[in-house]
Amino acid sequence: MLIVGLGNPGPNYEQTRHNIGFMVIDELVSRMNANKFSSNTSFNGELFKFSNHFLLKPLTFMNLSGNSIAAVKKFYKIEDVVVIHDDLDLPFGTIRFKKGGGHGGHNGLKSTDEKISREYIRVRMGIGKPEHKGEVSSYVLSDFNSKEKDHISEWISFACEAVECLLQNSLEDVSSKYTIKKFQLK
Length: 186
Hints:
peptidyl-tRNA hydrolase activity, Peptidyl-tRNA hydrolase, Rossmann fold, RNA-binding, globular, alpha/beta, Pept_tRNA_hydro_sf, hydrolase
């Protein structure tokens, strides 16, 4: 299985809403004691391996994520792909799962769909919406607010548990056990 976290490379983006996928991959690398696996520059990403599974952080910037995913998928002949990404249409802290579907304007998903098709599992991590539609770019590229930051570790840990469960169980089982409809901020 190839587990991908979407995000943007570089220190300016590390703690932004758009990088929640990278944050989950970082935690999975730590939990799984995954080793940096390849420095193959054609992958355009950081690739880690544990057991027979791969973790990937594409370093192509969000809009070209599919290039990195497709290169790793093709080279290692991987069938099952899981993509962890931010989702504006879900409230902060929500976690939902689905296979296939549209990209909803998310450029990382759009790129992935174009390169490998839509038939991959999505771990949708709700980041909420900005007040005005014209603020989407600045919103996704901004850091989480202080209340959200208080819950980030717990949320990421829960997402990691779900992904770990997905390695051994069906999407339906994982979805019924790990879907969070609305996270309660205190």
